[in-house]
Write a structure and sequence with these properties.
Radius of gyration: 38 Å
Number of helices: 5
Largest sheet: 4 strands, antiparallel
CATH class of the domain at 119-195: Alpha Beta
Helix content: 40-55%
CATH superfamily of the domain at 119-195: Sporulation related repeat
Structural class: alpha+beta
Low-confidence stretches: 95-106
CATH topology of the domain at 119-195: Alpha-Beta Plaits
Distance between the termini: 92 Å
Shape: elongated
Length: about 200
């Protein structure tokens, strides 16, 4: 095929394509063009709002709220009372043994404080001997730290963990951990853990 004929055919094809693109714009009325170029957002569709049924009935929720408030009031009232007298030793002279392993309550609260329901503690030691845990606990309390001990059984072994806290914010627990690490009396490299009574 001759080069000149090929160029004419390509030109004709390009003109036909251009005509196909421009012909709708040329032969439309201005009203049709405005309608075609209208960019308005259509109105929102009508829909029915979804009503989610509560999982817990209002009566159960109200009873739970009332119970939490009464528990809080009891804790605050107990914190405001002077220390309870020590329990009398049993009549048979034997020391009572803790039958269930539980976490002891956190340190006593003042009357105006709200109880800490969750937060963070610093675990400073874990001992198999209760005497070692008690010795560290006494040293920490004498130094002004809020310390307590948890007893836990794992793989048939009894562990006594010494904790400092609780703190509501993790940053405060991290600061306590750093103070214990920097204190030359202890040099304890603690571990910040989640506290849940």
């Amino acid at each position: 095929m001759n080069k000149q004929i090929r160029q004419r055919l390509i030109g004709a094809v390009l003109l036909l394509i251009l005509a196909a693109i421009l012909s709708p714009l040329v032969f439309r009325t201005p009203a049709q063009i405005r309608t075609a170029l209208n960019m308005e957002i259509p109105p929102a569709p009508d829909y029915q709002p979804v009503v989610v049924e509560p999982v817990v009935s209002e009566e159960v929720e109200a009873a739970a709220a009332e119970r939490m408030q009464s528990d809080r009031n009891e804790i605050v009232a107990a914190a405001g009372q002077p220390g309870n007298p020590p329990a009398a030793p049993p009549a048979d002279g034997k020391e009572q043994v803790l039958e269930t392993l539980t976490t002891p309550p956190p340190p006593a609260l003042s009357a105006g404080d709200d109880p800490v329901l969750a937060g963070f503690v610093v675990q400073v030691g874990s001992f198999t001997q209760q005497d070692s845990a008690n010795a560290l606990l006494v040293r920490l309390k004498e130094a002004g730290f809020r310390a307590y001990m948890e007893t836990d059984s794992r793989d048939g072994n009894l562990y006594h963990r010494v904790m400092v806290g609780p703190e509501i914010r993790k940053e405060d627990a991290e600061q306590t951990r750093q103070r214990l690490a920097n204190d030359s009396r202890f040099n304890l490299d603690g571990l910040v853990r989640i506290y849940a009574p």
